[in-house]
Amino acid sequence: xxxxxxxxxxxxxxxxxxxxxxxxxxxxxxxxxxxxxxxxxxxxxxxxxxxxxxxxxxxxxxxxxxxxxxxxxxxxxxxxxxxxxxxxxxxxxxxxxxxxxxxxxxxxxxxxxxxxxxxxxxxxxxxxxxxxxxxxxxxxxxxxxxxxxxxxxxxxxxxxxxx
Length: 163
Description:
Rossmann fold; 163 residues
């Protein structure tokens, strides 16, 4: 289609690490020791993947829930990402809200940290790859946006099951 411009983004889709179920308020649940350990493994995977393809990460977008913020902070620290944005509206939302947030960014290489079932649905919808993202799992995709929408399917470059 003439006149439309394409915008390619590399995105690491990360489900937050394992969280404590003891807190009465879901939004305030914190990572367990296991959650911190696995989040560090995911952060290291992202670092190694970026080094192997000579890619610098520009941005991290995260739900504002405590466990996602903790996961994002671990990833940002190890990967030298200085721009991390936290949004309460990404806490309990649909895949389309995440896509709108990503599409509106000028950054090309992005980490997003969020929740299930939304992130499993996001990977399934974008890539046609049936997956249930467990805590600290990571899908690395390349997604192309056009003025008139997303070009499907996205490319699933890699999936890190963090077992």
